[in-house]
Design a protein that fits this description.
Rossmann fold, 5-stranded parallel sheet, elongated
Length: 217
């Protein structure tokens, strides 16, 4: 019986090596790539039974884009997203890019490599993925934000002023300020008491994006 083939796309070399070793020890045949460009080359050469994809691969296509390409090419491929992103919308507004039959694991919540192997087996066998969809069990209030609220939060995190955000979104300043206010309230920020509301909101955004601040928070 041939070994099942897995493509691992992870830009962090040490983690890529760790994942590869865990999969090979579980009987999989593994190919790995450190970028979207490398992944495309491997995908064009052969079909894989499964893929483990980091989402944030730096400038250019994301792991979500690779997943879409892969599933369009081979719909039966098992896909596992392994990422620091608690909410995929942090990096891509199109959260629907996470296929309903894919697993989604947050690196911070992963207990060990066996959980990754278990998630992969569950997708390959078309089993229940409830335990392997960390994006569906968000404990942070950012998971409750609407697409518009998340969009303005991203712009706030980029350092844009309210006026600049209004211009980018093609909305009035008053409407933009109201939306930003509702966004902060949804994040649990008390506008009447928190004088650093923007800082608190950006800190939460960075946390969900897996960005560690200098103070370690």
């Amino acid at each position: 019986m041939r070994a099942r083939s897995v493509l691992v796309v992870e830009d962090e070399a040490f983690l890529r090596s760790l994942i590869t070793s865990a999969l090979e020890n579980s009987g999989f045949e593994v190919e790995s790539a450190g970028s979207a460009a490398e992944a495309r080359k491997l995908l064009n050469k052969r079909d894989h039974d499964a893929a483990i994809l980091d989402i944030d691969l730096g400038p250019g296509p994301t792991g979500l884009d690779i997943g879409q390409f892969l599933l369009a090419k081979s719909p039966g491929t098992a896909v596992v997203y392994l990422t620091m992103l608690a909410d995929p919308r942090v990096i891509d507004d199109s959260a629907e890019k996470v296929n309903s039959r894919a697993a989604y694991l947050n690196k911070r919540r992963l207990t060990d490599t066996q959980e990754l192997v278990d998630a992969l087996e569950a997708v390959l066998r078309d089993q229940d993925l409830s335990d392997f969809r960390h994006d569906k069990s968000l404990t942070s209030p950012i998971g409750n934000l609407s697409s518009s609220q998340l969009q303005v939060l991203k712009l706030v995190a980029k350092g844009l002023t309210n006026q600049q955000i209004a211009e980018v979104r093609g909305r009035s300043l008053s409407a933009t300020e109201a939306l930003i206010g509702r966004t902060f309230v949804s994040l649990g920020i008390d506008l009447g008491r928190d004088s650093n509301a923007r800082i608190l909101a950006v800190r939460e955004f960075f946390r969900q994006a897996g960005i560690v601040l200098n103070d370690g928070q």
